[in-house]
Amino acid sequence: xxxxxxxIVEHEAGHFLTAYLLGCPVEACLLDPLxxxxxxxxxxxxxxxxxxxxxxxxxRAGSVPRSSVDRYSVVVMxxxxxxxxxxxxxxxxxxxxxxxxxxxTSLDGxxxxxxxxxxxxxxxxxxxxxxCIRAHRPAFDALVEALxxxxxxxxCVMAIEEA
Length: 163
Known about the structure:
One of its GO terms (biological process) is proteolysis. Helices cover about 70% and strands about 5% of the residues. By secondary structure, it is mainly α. About 35% of the residues are buried.
């Protein structure tokens, strides 16, 4: 339905905008699950692929600073935050929550990230993402329109910059 598609666009715009604002290049954003099913970057679902060079370097080095964990957390929880900001609740985001849990429990075999800490990190990140989206609402709205129109990543970045 058009309403459901719009929510997908808004959800992905949350990821895209926060990734961009936090310095994580956006590689791709696909909204069509059928196209995503043929692209291995998307694991069969619509989504936004971003790259955090600082996190990648830190993981290779075996020591991930809290700032990298926080940045990743905000971007991953931003889709849920966008939905909650616009509609008062989020329908999507289970895969996002699972991605956050996977990262946190992989850092030191899960020793420092128990359920309570993961839950607090997710809440903090979603709140931070919501504040970011609220503070940059004109850019978010312009990005939603660009994504809904099927624009390229570069054109979407221009929409953010020109808002």
